[in-house]
Design a protein that fits this description.
Keywords: Oxidoreductase. It is an enzyme of class 1 (oxidoreductase). By secondary structure, the chain is α/β, with parallel strands linked by helices. It has 7 helices and 7 strands; from the N terminus they run βαβαβαβαβαβααβ. Strands 3-2-1-4-5-6-7 form a 7-stranded parallel beta sheet, with helices on both faces. Helix 1 crosses helix 7 and helix 4 packs parallel to helix 5. The chain is globular, with a radius of gyration of 17 Å. About 45% of the residues are buried. The mean pLDDT is about 90.
């Protein structure tokens, strides 16, 4: 991979596994210095070691993106360590099943806390730095569920619709100030997304879905993100879908 991001500083949330970890590694391969935020400090330490082993530079910033103060601190610690923040990748996310019958309101709140508000907290801290620098890039990892709903994906789909809408509004607000904002909607991608689902039937179904032959790999999502970031500044790939070739659904 060409080192198109040399001199750039990136912060990746949800970096301890899956798309976040895969993206952080690809950013480092492209030459970016990478700050890594997630709750699992041991996983972050392993990823720092991986990045350093390929000649990259990384910093682990353990914390919970759903706690506003901790999300903001990750941004400020990135700037304190490296002097700037050029790229923010919001990858922290969670999936839960459930519809309106027997609804668990606390679970809905948790889904929105992670999939929507954690993103907002990071934005609120990163945008002032990017405006002061005169440029920046923000990419939010959402989902194809943000295009449609389903009886077993009510909270998840609603949160991803919200994230997509919020991202596009932010794009319109910041585009004229040289801050590019975009969202990437993955289809079936080999991650641990199923592990946190409380409903066993839905957990098993999603685990099978993301483990099927031909599923996208986290590194491939990372490569797509590097492509988006490597475009000339006047080009903003504001929305991109990455799905398995075998997925022929609309």
């Amino acid at each position: 991979m060409a080192q198109t991001l040399v001199g750039k500083v990136a912060l990746v949330t949800g970096a301890s596994s899956g798309i976040g970890a895969g993206t952080a590694l690809e950013l480092a391969k492209a030459g970016a210095t990478v700050a890594l935020s997630a709750r699992r400090a041991d996983r972050l330490a392993e990823l720092v070691a991986q990045i350093e082993a390929i000649g990259g530079k990384a910093l682990a910033l353990p914390g919970d993106a759903t706690v506003e103060a901790e999300a903001i601190k990750a941004v400020e610690d990135t700037v304190a360590a490296f002097g700037r923040i050029d790229i923010l990748i919001n990858s922290a996310g969670v999936m839960q099943a459930g519809g309106i019958q027997g609804v668990d309101i606390a679970e809905y709140r948790r889904v929105f806390d992670i999939n929507v508000f954690a993103t907002l907290y990071s934005w609120s801290a990163a945008v002032p730095h990017m405006l002061e620098q005169g440029e920046g890039d923000i990419i939010n990892i959402t989902s194809l569920a943000g295009r449609k709903g389903g009886p077993e994906t009510n909270a998840y789909s609603a949160s991803k619709h919200a994230a997509n809408s919020m991202t596009d509004a932010m794009r319109q607000e910041l585009g004229g100030k040289n801050v590019r904002v975009a969202y990437l909607m993955p289809g079936a991608t080999s991650t641990e997304v199923a592990s946190g689902i409380s409903n066993p039937n839905w957990r098993n179904a999603i685990a099978a879905h993301v483990a099927k032959d031909g599923a996208v790999q986290p590194s491939e999502i990372g490569e797509a993100i590097v492509f988006m970031l490597s475009m000339p500044r006047h080009v903003n790939i504001s929305e991109i879908t990455v799905r398995p070739t075998i997925d022929t659904t609309a």
